[in-house]
Amino acid sequence: MDIETAFHTVGEFGPYQKRAVTVLVLAQVYMACQSMLIVLVGYTPEYRVEKQDGGSSGHRELQQHVIFTEDVDSIVTEWVLIRQQAYKVSLAGSLFFTGLLVGNVVFGPLSDRIGRRPVYLTGLFFEVMFGYLTALAPSYEVFAASRLLVGLMNGGIGLVCFVLTQEYVGKSYWAMTGTLTSMIFAVGIALFGALGYFVRPWRTLATVANSSGVLFFLLSVTLPESPRWLYSQGQTERAEEVLRYMAVRNGSNATNLVLQRVGAAKPGGPVSRRGGVLQLAVHPVLRLRTMVLMYVWYCCSLVYYGLTLGASATSGSRFVNVAMYGLVELPAYPLCIYFINKSWAGRRKSMSSFLFLAGSACLCTTLIPENSGSLLSITSLALLGKLMVSAAFNIAYVYTSELYPTVIRNAGLGVCSMSCRVGGILAPFVPSMRALHASMPFTVFCLSGLSAGCLGLLLPETLNRPAADTLEELSGPSGSRVLENKALLYEEEKLKSNHK
């Protein structure tokens, strides 16, 4: 039997898979806390500077004349990161996103080569270690370096963790587990806001937020390797062992489960060798999909983080703001589950539609006066835009994992996530474009959402279609759009002419 039939026999989402997925999904709470840490520990309170004799002086003397009028303990108050030193707070956040970018590029192909489980456990272990280094940092330089390293691990294991939740279950549950992963991440943001309210000292907050990673690491040690990855690598016997173990835990009688050997790749064989980041540029179908998906992920990230940063500047409690901008995403996930499983909507149309709606919401903000009513205001439309782009972002994760074969799935997700991090790095600069014109930031978000929605329609639909395990399975016309079929025909003609 093939791998999909085996999951039907073992149980697509049995009791054991529910426990394994629960561990991986709840780990998103820890990752969300690390992602949002700088928002609270880098808070700049109100302050005043006493008059200094002799005019302006260096930063060391400025520290002696600064009085913070709010009772806040943050890296700003400890290292006096104000005025010329204020950029260091944003720099620490940018370093975290830079680490995410590098982690996506490195960890994705690495897990495709050596396996999901060892990469995930190693990355989680070191993220916890670097997280404690953040809490104990004796200087800003050590703090900034630790944020880079935490981002490196966070970006890598977040990707592998998502893929594992998909590959532990049957394909019919991929949409649900992918949506659940994103939803718990949003819940983690809200929980971090509540945690920050009760734990005010920044070092204590960083320590408490990081300590949950120890629990998730201990729970993850018992998780098995992905049977889909083992099968795609030709390690059929090990895949059968994992599936039989799942069957026993699920109460299913599958002791005679045997996977087909026909077409399976041997370790180091042709299919295994052809997997890798290079295939994303060489393979005609993967090349088109990757170009479109990278742009979609980039625009999703630019709009998502841009709206978050712009909205978080509103007045009110910073703890409430963090919680609110996490909770506002929650309605997006039931919408995703409903639409992407309908034959008349599917993955492709749903993702493009949500991107269109996000762009339209940003367009409407340019038509509304700044001092309008509370029901229809720039803030409410910005939150609506974030709700829509959150839905599109969630579908992009699920959709992308289905568009790439197993042998190259993590590499594909890694490259797409890399472009996502580029959008995250550039997002803080978009609100500053308000200096050119008040509507300029939302115009950028509008054009990004509308253009990404249009390009997303070029991708093939994956609803109710079997997931590809090897690159050869992409050659069939059933899973390709017209442009991809033309690319395959062009590649075949090119090979024939070269052969002649």
Please explain how this structure is put together.
This protein is mainly α and 500 residues long. The protein has 21 helices and two strands. Strands 1-2 form a two-stranded antiparallel ribbon. Mean pLDDT is 82; it is low at 264-274.
Count, helices: 21
Helix-strand sequence: HHEHEHHHHHHHHHHHHHHHHHH
End-to-end separation in angstroms reads 39 Å
The rounded Rg comes to: 24 Å
Q: Largest sheet, if any?
A: 2 strands, antiparallel
- SSE-based structural type: mainly alpha
Q: Number of DSSP strands?
A: 2
Sheet-strand content, in percent, reads under 5%
Identify low-pLDDT runs. 264-274
Helix content: 55-70%
The whole-number mean of residue pLDDT values reads 82
- Order of adjacent strands in the largest pleated sheet: 1-2
Principal-axis shape equals: globular
Question: What structural keywords apply?
Answer:
mainly alpha, 500 residues, two-stranded antiparallel ribbon
In short:
This protein is mostly helical and 500 residues long. It has helices spanning 3-10, 15-41, 59-63, 75-79, 87-114, 116-135, 140-167, 174-198, 202-220, 227-232, 236-250, 270-274, 279-282, 284-311, 318-327, 332-340, 346-365, 378-403, 409-426, 440-456, 482-499, and strands at 47-49, 66-68.
List the helices and strands and how they pair.
Elements: H1 3-10, H2 15-41, E1 47-49, H3 59-63, E2 66-68, H4 75-79, H5 87-114, H6 116-135, H7 140-167, H8 174-198, H9 202-220, H10 227-232, H11 236-250, H12 270-274, H13 279-282, H14 284-311, H15 318-327, H16 332-340, H17 346-365, H18 378-403, H19 409-426, H20 440-456, H21 482-499
Antiparallel strand pairs: 1-2
Helix pairs in contact: 1-11, 2-7, 2-8, 2-9, 5-6, 5-7, 5-19, 6-7, 6-9, 7-8, 7-19, 8-15, 8-16, 8-18, 14-18, 14-19, 14-20, 14-21, 16-18, 17-18, 17-20, 18-19
